[in-house]
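Box 3.1 — From sequence to structure: Cell division protein FtsW
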Amino acid sequence: MNERKFEYLDRVTSYIKSKEAKRYVEEELHYHLQQEIARLTLDGYSREEAEQKAIEQMGSPDRLGAKLNKLHRPRFDWVLALMVFVISLIGILPLLEIRSDFNIFVVFLPNKIVSLVISLVIILLFMWFPYQKLVKFKWLFFILSFVMMWLILEYGVMINGAPYFVIKGGIVLSSFSVLTILFIAWLSYLGDSEANLLWVFILFGVSVYFFVMVPALSATLMYVTIVGILLWVRFPERRRTFVMMLASFIVVSSTYVFINIDNIERYQLERLLAFINPENYKDNAGYNYLNNKELLSKSGWFGQEGGQIDLVEFHTDFAFVNLTYHYGWLLGGFTILLGLLIAARMLRKLSNIRDPFGRLIILGGVSLYSFQFLYNIMMVLGVVPYIAISLPFISYGLTSTVQYSMIIGLFLSVFRRQNLVRITEDRGASK
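Predicted structure (token representation):
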């Protein structure tokens, strides 16, 4: 009679178009059949009778197969995809306002278009890749990130006060490149049910040491925040320990800064003082705060037509100021709203995700994206101190493009497979 059971399963799964979903459906149906056969056997039925009755209770294989195919078909969040597409197109606009410098225009604009194509490829690759398999590559991601750290520290070239490892072809590795790989590494490691807290402390300590040695303030803040959120979600029973770790990190960092206050570079101290009172440093560190405030105040609803503005980092960290000045607060406000809606969209779908690993990926991705988006907006508005941090989907740069694309791609991968939770996981959860 086993042949009849497997014939039934083959008939049902023949309607399932997705190969990945077919495996999950077959496993789930086989488990339920085995459970029902065991129950009927205890009720006095013979093995053959129990199997026949269990199959009959399942109903028509044709109707069941069609129903399960509809239920388990891969999903795609068209709303999120549309929002990402629109905000990415908005990101081209700041580059259109550098027309007076032809050399910059012919380099930046084509590179931005290439970045958008790369972004699309990365999103599709991560969406199609089964996110559960990331766990298999956890150590590879950590090793890769540590190698990148070593290359930057040992062979890095100082550019604008930060070390970069330059590769032939114009490709550079920075602290944000390392942060991107480490983000995937932590997701992969914490997605493993056997994740060990001892290794968590070791990996976190080594990586934080790198960011401190670079030094990279913005990357350090982002890294500590994101890993903290991931650990808080992954190990709810250890939250008191993590709070103590964070408090210790703050105390040690503050003590180190206080002891070495005389060794702090003058420009670093001026940056802090300029945030507090930019008028006193209007010719150096305070210039950006005052200039951004003036440009945003002149923007109006529809922006200023023509002319170039005196704005450093006009295409990266201060791209929002460039965008708002030339196209107005109507578009600037819409950009902020759209950026927030992208995060809200991902969080809204969280309630539909049953897989703990999938939920961790979404929470981690939203945290990384939201940190950068909100900080950049608050930075250009003068609410928080200036650090080198880009605006997702708007700022120019390949590293940031790769980072945001991976976040969206991973979300779509989880969303696509939200109904494909292994029956073994359901059993474990019900115990």
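Summary of the box: The chain has two domains: 2-73, 78-416.
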